[in-house]
Amino acid sequence: MTEILSLDFMQRALVAALLVGLVAPMVGIFVVQRRMSLIGDGMGHVALAGVAIGLVTDQSPGLTALVAAVIAAVAIELLRARGRTNGDVALAIIFYGGIAAGVVIISQAPDGTPANLVKYLFGSILTVRESDLVVFAVLAVVIAATTWVLKPRLFAVANDEEYARAVGLPVLALNIVLAVLTATTVVIAMRIVGLLLISALMIVPNAAAQLFSRSFGSGLRWAMVLGLVSAVGGVLASYPLNTPSGGTIVLVAVGLFVVIAVAMSLRERLRARRHDMAERHDHEHGPDCGHEGIPHGDHIDYVHDGHLHAAHQSHYDEHGEVAAAAAATTKPAEEDATR
Amino acid sequence: MTTVIELKDASFGYGERPIVTDTSLAITRGEVVVVLGANASGKSTLMKGILGLNNLLSGTVTLFGEPADDVSDRARIGYVPQRHTLSASVRATAEEIVESGRLPRLGWLGRLGATDRQIVCRSLDLVGLADRSGTEVSTLSGGQQRRVLIARALAGQPDVLIMDEPTAGVDVVNQHVLADVLGRLVERDVTLVIVTHELGALEGLPTRIIVVDGGRIAFDGDPDRYAAARDSVHHDHDSHHHDLELAQPPAMAHGPFDPPAGTP
Questions:
Q1: Domain extent listing, chain B
Q2: Torsion-angle region of residue A242: left (phi > 0), alpha (psi -120 to 50) or beta?
Q3: Which residue in A230, A309, B171, B182 has the fewest CB atoms around it within 10 Å?
């Protein structure tokens, strides 16, 4: 392990993985929420055209990729806001045009070998240079800060766009910001994850976190943890295994998803077995329902005919009988109202 | 009485195609307006037009005495949409959803402060979900989800609340809870505009009834007049398959202030 960490290129790759692992799920959760999980994929396609232009014109491929992806991002959002029916086709044309242009242009570059193409498509830890790292870090901080500041608004728009527009939130501006954040994330992640797999690091950790989290806040935090573990773990594993870093990172993320999915379904089954439902009643318990409420851990049990009822999903769980003393304090007059 | 919403010869639609035509309407503070109409009659388009969600093709919309385009504070009109987008692709708690209703009051970059959180709590309390604030919304019942959407609108402290089918798909018990909630809003002087198929579920709250048909207002009057005029309204127009809709509201058979049919 220490041997791996003493290698310069590994250190750079790990720092890049750390940044990407944290930032990609942060942007990704809004992309998932908007049901646009494949948009990152498309932007990766367009970024390839940018990379190719950079290689041919001897510019920094990262910079040209960023410019190409950001232009595509803004164009896509404007198309989505305007067009109603052809938006989907327009996206496809932009994306395929991007990757086709990338492949054709890159073949004209001085070092336009297939190996060079594969490096960008699937990621390589060897491609991260020191100068890149500074740029990555700055971009990652900008992405993280912007996402954090705009989080409540991005949430509102992604959760219910029509409502957000009705109450006067700047919906188009927020969507463009999210698209640009996505494009920037794609470019940072390009070096180690690869353009074809970038989207996975935005989506898979979120998909895994959604399996067990119960709020948006905790879903986001867990996705960042899982993204970090996948990215750093993948880079570390790719060196001794001599595998492409991008594929390894994504396999780690998918592995985590599968493990969590299996664990959750096992837990569900165990729970279902020792899960007592109260008799069905039409009355809905609440603070003013007339039934005494007794705090019980993270929820409130309501005393109903001498039994404790706890709200669970759309039914009530039976949480046992009330001790005689507690039962005496319930108001008998309320019992009629419950039927 | 102050006029909160005023339409003059307004036509609304999507693109260039008008769906609601030449509609004039004035709603004053404190009214509880029910908008009835068949599917595709244009009632949702009318509501979305007031909310600025589609195109105003001709005429004018005035909100709180100002032309709608100049109203900077759109949040004064709260909106409770029809479809529940709540059980969406990403998990969120009732509280998180309601917090998003507070945002229009916070400017461009502001974050929720202590007062805002208090308002969020109060909104959840008002709809009877104070004890479920931390619950993931997709696990709540349909009626409870509607109330989360109402609480979200309330968190913006609106003067007018426009609701699209708040009782649709909600069982009888939850309809009572919902009617109680609406009653509490009326006590707080919130003007309500409610699009619905089920007049009976509103338990005597409405003070005015509007029937939309074929993109026009076919009836506008108080509930008693509606009861009397109902037959003539639905014989007036030519498309017979709307008749069912207009004849349906069951509570009107025994007047708006009687207990609705189906009360256990």
A1: 1-30+44-72, 73-189
A2: left
A3: B171
- What is the distance in angstroms between the Cα of A336 and the nearest Cα belonging to chain B? 12
Using alpha carbons, list the distances in angstroms from residue B3 to A186, B53, B62, B212: 51, 21, 9, 21
CB contacts under 8 A, B 196-235 vs A, are: none
Say how far apart CA B115 and CA A222 lie, in whole Å: 29
Q: A283 vs B173: CB contact, 8 Å cut-off? A: yes
B103:A32 CB<8 A: no
Q: Could you tell me the residue ranges of all domains in chain A?
A: 2-199, 293-338
pTM: 0.81
pLDDT 10s digits, B158-217 = 999 999 888 877 778 778 888 888 888 888 888 999 998 878 778 788 899 999 988 888
**d(C-alpha A108, C-alpha A64), whole Å:** 16
- Interface touch A288/B100, C-beta < 8 Å: no
What is the predicted ipTM? 0.81
Q: pLDDT, tens digit, for every residue of A196-221?
A: 888 999 999 999 999 999 999 999 99
pLDDT band at A337 (very low <50, low <70, confident <90, very high): very low
CA distance A119 to A115: 6
The residues in B 57-76 lying below 8 A from A, measured between CB atoms, are 72-75
Among B73, B90, B125, select the one facing A32 at the smallest CB separation: B90
